[in-house]
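User: structure tokens for this one?
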Amino acid sequence: MKAIIFNSGIGKRMGALTANNPKSMVRLANGETIFERQIRILSDNGIKEFVITSGPYEEQLIAVTEKKAYSDCKFTFVKNPIYDKSNYIYSLYLAKDKLDDDFLMLHGDLVFNNGIVEKILSDKNPSTCLINKKKALPEKDFKGRICDGKLREVSINIFDSDCFTFQPLYKLDKATLGAWLDNVCDYIENRNINSVYAENALNEITDGLNIIPISYEDDYVEEIDNEDDYIRVCRDIQIFDAKEQKTVGSVAQIGEYLKKNNINKPLAVISKFLLESDTTKTLEGFCTPVYFSDFKPNPIYDDVIKAKKAYIKNGCDCIISIGGGSAIDTAKALKLFLPLDGEECLLNKEHIYVNIKHIAVPTTAGTGSEATRFSVIYYNGEKQSLTDVSIIPDLVVLDPKFLETLPENQKTATVLDALCQATESIWSVNANEASIDYAKKAIDLIIKNAHSYMQGVSSALVPIQIGANLSGRAINITQTTAAHAMSYKITSLFGVPHGAAVAMCMIPVWEYYNLHSDKSSNARSLIAEAYGADSIEGAFEIFKNICELLSLKTTVVATKAQLEALVDGVNPERLKNYPISLTKDGIRSLYEKIVKVK
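Assistant:
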């Protein structure tokens, strides 16, 4: 199977976004262009040969294909010299001699998820198209007429009961594509028609073809025609991509992924205590890893720069993080810094997308860092919160064996962190349907298994691990709120483990929420439901009981100066996610419930 991508258009409805580049070279929210996203997803699914039609700015498309990540792919370019006077039927005509196999055929402005490509390629029918029966028929975009289970017509101007929303992503066997090409040639050579859709030629011959529709109702496939489309797609595809993050349950399953992606020499960012473990032996059975463990428990900027130098010096081709949040944060920051040049500080440089795979192997179950777009490092003693959707790991290994030997204090802190994250994400002003679903599932798993987990019951390991991961997925969408914002300085000033500090702050923050939030707020009922309580007050009692069960220390002793340092140290950006306004005096009053001034 090969692919042909039509990239000959101008994209004149995109305004300034296409002033100096074709539409397919517009960058999505993660910094990746539409074109590179298409190439990445298709090549990840085994398609290694591409025919690319082009118009203006062909050199920009070529530059993408010359990246190291696509060195195992073959690209053939076909330039349409009259791109501004023809439609893609003429580009298809020009490429006819290159189309000698089964092909995926798609437009260059199409943004789609990985799952739909997997679905198309695995479908038993040799020729398929995409329809969506749930979406309302678009006024000005393609509809597909389906008769007797087959594609009969593709047009903008059909609105009958047998017509459905349609996207131009076809799988065509050689014979079907050949028949379409023959009619395209007739249009161009005999009728002198080059400014209609290629579907005009297809519609005349569909009676003799067998193109079977596949539903994309549960997938994401959208064209970007204008700036409004661009804004919407950038927002929506982030959520969809995060949902599709691949997860496996054992380090032993990494090998298949490495082989599929032609990875031979990963840089393993690994906690020191794991260097002589069975994990490294397993990894070495699949590849030749380069180990990097020279990072601090709270990783600093210089640690990441050292990791970058090790990656480049050794010619690595992937990142694997093995450890707790420190290892994963270091690896995420490394991916962000790898494409950036220069000797000056990289923190303030514009992020550049790079297609380097990151496999995360968390050895604790707390922050869900393996599922988020956030990384925390320190520079000159100051916390730096790095955020970019491109650093969400590509593959996550949730292997329960790592939780078996965790010390009790670490288990307590991490499980509380996960529970607080999930709860905060429900009342966050950024909550949506997806984040709420993740959070409710996380809370349910954690409260049902926390006691058994602390008692060392092996059957509780996987539910706790999944619960923490789901809390990370929820917070990846919503970000943390007041409890987290208040916790960081408690950790830095008093050495309280992060999760315990969050839970300590959560008690007054939640109490404040109960008193000041709108009694009819949907979030209140959702939190109650997640905790299996009749009310949010009942949920709060369950939370406090869990904290007591886990022997959470709920106060710290501080000087007055330290109390003021806590108040001044709260990140105002995180407070914006909390649904109730908090003044400086309000924050102080919350701290006074957990800080005993000596």
